[in-house]
Amino acid sequence: MSLKAKIISKLKQKATALGVNLSNVRINGLADKLDSLITNEDDIDVEIDKLDQVLGFKELAALDDAKRNADKKAAEDEDKGKDPEKKDTVDPEKKDPEKKDEAPAWFKQHVENQNKVIETLTTTVANLQKGNTIQTRRQQLEAKLKDAPEKFKQRTLRDFDRLKIDSDDDFTNYLADVEQDVADEIQAASDAGLGNDSPVRGASGGKLKDDEVSPAMKEIVEQRKAEAAAKAGA
User: Fold this and answer.
1) Per-residue b/e over 85-107, b at no fewer than 16 CB within 10 Å?
2) In whole angstroms, how large is the CA radius of gyration of the chain?
3) How far from the centroid of its chain's Cα atoms is residue 56's Cα?
4) Separation of CA 140 from chain center
5) Most C-beta atoms within 10 A of its C-beta, which of 104, 114, 167, 215?
């Protein structure tokens, strides 16, 4: 079963639990929105609850009920027009001069406005969740870069802000690559420091300034120096 199919099934369960009857068109529309946000099946129930809090499934169901009733009446009127035996002999204007059975114009306008509000809110929720995901990923990346050389850290963060990573799996793989790159940078910086009895050297061969070397890097370099000195004196 695809992720969207599972979302549709969960939406129907939610509607049943609330005692409401969302139309298939409504459910499919909500499922499309959620499918663009959800990557993990375990998040379906949570995201559906969030959407219910924002949009109100009971209010949506009321709109769907009103549309179903209007469609049903329109179909009945059309059938009467096709079957002479069912045609009402009473003049429509005399029977219902104000056309009370037809949804009033204000209600039709209300339904249209509600649908526009729903679309706007759904888009807003999607954008907020996307922003939260990007912020959370950046925090994870910053944690991995905590002990990296400052220049490497800033360059990696700058590149990340330009990247577009859609799925969680792609981000996990990216994070693993960065973690390995950090380890390589720390090792290279440490080796360079030991070989020249100085802090890490830059690409031009000159020494980096103290503020360009992280405290953790300095500690590693000093530890390696001590180990090298101990071996030399043995």
Assistant:
1) eeeeeeeeeeeeeeeeeeeeeee
2) 32
3) 20
4) 17
5) 114
Helix or strand run (H / E) with residue 67: helix 57-82
- Position 72, amino acid: K
136: left (phi > 0), else alpha (psi -120 to 50), else beta?
Answer: alpha
List, in sequence order, the alpha helices (H) in 145-167. Answer: 150-162
131 sits in which H/E element: helix 105-144
Q: What is the pLDDT of residue 201?
A: 44
Whether 214 contacts 221, CB under 8 Å? no
Q: What's the rounded Cα separation, in Å, for the pair 81 and 79?
A: 5
Joined together, the tokens standing for residue 36 give 């663009």
**Would you say 96 and 52 are in contact if contact means Cβ atoms under 8 Å apart?**
no
With tokens 């009402």, the residue in question is 88
Six-digit token pair at 110?
A: 């209300």
* pTM exceeding 0.85: no
Which residues of the chain fall short of a pLDDT of 70?
Answer: 81-104, 106-107, 110, 121-134, 166, 193-221, 223-224, 228, 231-234
